[in-house]
Amino acid sequence: MKSRTLIQILLGLVIVGLSIWLVSSIMKPVKFQNEYDLRRDACAEKLKAIRALEDAYKNTYGCYTGSFDTLFNRLMNEDSLSVVNKNINYDKIPEDVKLEELPESEAIKLGYVSRVVAYVNPIENLRANPKAKFNLTDEEILNLRYVPYPKGEKNEFELEAGFIEKSGYQMPVFECKVMMEDLLSDLDEQLVINKLAELNENHRFPGWKVGDMTQAITDGNFE
User: Fold this and answer.
1) What ranges do the domains of the chain cover?
2) For residues 11 and 104, what is the distance between their CA atoms, to the nearest angstrom?
3) Cβ(81)–Cβ(120) under 8 Å?
4) Secondary structure of 121-187 in the HEC alphabet?
5) Which pLDDT value is given to residue 91?
6) CA distances from 78 to 57, 64, 71, 72 (A)
7) pLDDT digits 0-9 by tens, 187-208
8) What tens digit of pLDDT does each residue of 76-105 get?
9) What pLDDT is attached to residue 27?
10) CA dist., res. 27 & res. 137, Å (int)
């Protein structure tokens, strides 16, 4: 009787153990996908902000930069973006003069037109643009260079910039990215291998990025 009871207890423990193992096996890929999505979204937010800064840098200096130090320091610490306001002095223009027929340099010389140049900090100019929706603090900007995962590690996004030739012109380009194997390095190794194989099979870039060093685009592959 005791043996029968002991066998029943052991069988019960085995069944419980198998049930736990089965549930864990089913939930493991689900948890991995949820974490994958979470990390994608976190990277996307940072990459979009970096893109906004690179666009502000290009508007100011005519090119992109492949250095986070240069990107942050020049945009945050220099009043380099010139904004030209053109004022037309209607009271000084004779009735027989058609302003549109005069070269601007001549109109300025005659006092018909005046130009006022103001210098604006590029970051503040970006924040003031309602379309940009850029409201990061200075501290948050300085931390954009760091990949948000794995937690506790200060890995940086890879940032490159340069020029490509298109239709006889030199076009500025940049690319900012993180490779999937770095972003997911603390997760289940086999599931990471499976995800990379899936991306490769579908001819997709094995990471998250904005911009491209081979074509003049600033799109993100997460969009």
Assistant:
1) 38-79+122-223, 80-120
2) 94
3) yes
4) CHHHHHHHCCCCCCCCCHHHHHCCCECCCCCCCCCECEEEEEEEEECCEEEEEEEEEEEHHHHCCCC
5) 81
6) 11, 16, 11, 10
7) 999 999 999 999 999 999 999 9
8) 886 555 555 567 778 888 888 777 777 777
9) 66
10) 38
pLDDT band at 13 (very low <50, low <70, confident <90, very high): low
User: Tokens for 126?
Assistant: 């970006």
Cα 30 from Cα 38, distance rounded (Å): 12
- Calculate ∠ Cα 209-72-83, nearest 5°: 105
Q: Are 46 and 52 in contact (CB under 8 A)?
A: no
Of 41-45, 77-81, 217-221, the range with the lowest mean pLDDT is 77-81
Tell me what percent of the chain is helix, strand and coil, each rounded to the nearest 5. 50, 20, 30
Distance CA 79, CA 74 (A): 9
Label residue 173 by pLDDT band (50, 70, 90): very high
Q: Are 75 and 53 in contact (CB under 8 A)?
A: yes
